Amino acid sequence: MSNKLIEVEALARRLREFASDRDWQQFHSPKNLAMALTGEIGELVEIFQWMSEGESKHAGTSERTAPAVREELADVTLYLVRLADVLGVDLNAAVAEKLRVNATKYPVDAARGSARKYNDLERG
Amino acid sequence: MSNKLIEVEALARRLREFASDRDWQQFHSPKNLAMALTGEIGELVEIFQWMSEGESKHAGTSERTAPAVREELADVTLYLVRLADVLGVDLNAAVAEKLRVNATKYPVDAARGSARKYNDLERG
Amino acid sequence: MSNKLIEVEALARRLREFASDRDWQQFHSPKNLAMALTGEIGELVEIFQWMSEGESKHAGTSERTAPAVREELADVTLYLVRLADVLGVDLNAAVAEKLRVNATKYPVDAARGSARKYNDLERG
Amino acid sequence: MSNKLIEVEALARRLREFASDRDWQQFHSPKNLAMALTGEIGELVEIFQWMSEGESKHAGTSERTAPAVREELADVTLYLVRLADVLGVDLNAAVAEKLRVNATKYPVDAARGSARKYNDLERG
């Protein structure tokens, strides 16, 4: 069993092969992959755009929307893992580092229930 | 050792606790988290926007840009895993399903070296 | 008085000069400007991400958020107009054309009050 | 003739009527419209994602890509103008204000030919 927060190496390897088999590495610069990731986020966001917050909570299980939700989440994941791979970034280490920063920056007592504090976090 | 392509449960659990400790679940509707993910993608894309494709290949290792690259990739990962968690979506299963679709849709011989074919994939 | 739906030429000219004076045309490929536009959208979306829909209706007039709303809307507008300009696209003509398509596609009676119909529009 | 940098009121009025005729104002909160704008940006970015910068310069005139470029630029414009309208923001005033800020912040001599300076502008 792994001690990691996330483990993406098997997927990264699979995507490397997939690209290599099709001679697609030439298109996979970080710049291009960041754009492709943007496109997929756009498709994900479209699912939720006219829903209320309450409705969005059922989007992952509702028969009408779940297939699209799964597909777009998968697409975002594929491009994110591929992008980190071509950049040579260890996603697990990057995530662990960011969690440490967030824990220090947002002590439980000061941040409790406050969207404003929370928002500040994102500017950090 | 896991047979999974990706393993995100430890991170999902950590983010659940982080939100719960701060009473932030109230802000974490899928609709809101999809927007937060958009914001992080925007920050990631900004890193690459004035770089050439060639320059972008060194962005993950160059001293000047690597810290920002790691931080923004981490932020995207945190929100993606949190979003999948509140939606009740198994990211590994969703990814495996999408890879099967892509493999069928883009046979090696037909897709080789073609950005146009590749592009079609994204519309699938 | 103009018969146009929108008129952006004075701004386009100003942005051309601004870029030219600073020798920034070299960075203003459509690919790069589309990425810059993404970054600005990210900053705009961040303003609304933790707001309820009701709260978001006051974001343009509330003292706390109005300056940021105006600034991010301006930034999106600047990059959009600059992007259309370097692409040689007449925004007013493009908008007029799209409005005609939408009017035909979404007859008043069939579309009334339906988010689903509305959503289909975006896929068109 | 107008002294404005941009003039969008005729389009804003048209979009108001279009929404009102279909009883779509209920979906048009700023939060929702910001998400819809994200989706359209995603579609715009997809056009350029596998192009080189050089290729992207012809995307607005090339027969193969020009119709999609015009359509996605139009969609972004529609949602941007609609969003500013429901927020009660005067886009022309917001743009004029931002141009003044940028001119002060980026004096011609200091900014010339520097992507780094330029990049700082976006953080401003």
Describe the structure.
4 copies of one chain form a homotetramer. Chain A is mainly α and 124 residues long. In chain A, 69% of the residues lie in helices and 0% in strands. The first copy, chain A, has 7 helices and no strands. Chain A has helices at 9-21, 30-48, 53-56, 66-87, 91-105, 108-111, 115-123. In chain A, helix 1 crosses helix 4 (66-87) and helix 2 packs antiparallel against helix 4. The radius of gyration of chain A is 18 Å and the shape is globular. The model of chain A is unreliable at 120-124 (pLDDT under 50).
What are the defining features of this structure?
homotetramer; mainly alpha; 124 residues
Proportion of strand residues of chain A: under 5%
* Biggest interface: C-D, 76 and 77 residues
Note the quaternary state here: homotetramer
Instruction: Calculate the terminal CA-CA distance of chain A, rounded to whole Å.
Output: 33 Å
Structural class by SSE content of chain A: mainly alpha
Name the overall outline of chain A: globular
Radius of gyration of chain A using CA atoms only: 18 Å
Average residue pLDDT of chain A:
92
In percent, how helical is the residue content of chain A? 55-70%
Could you tell me the number of beta strands of chain A? 0
Largest sheet of chain A: none
The ordered string of helix (H) and strand (E) elements of chain A is HHHHHHH
Any low-confidence stretches of chain A, pLDDT <50, length ≥5?
A: 120-124
Q: What's the number of helices of chain A?
A: 7
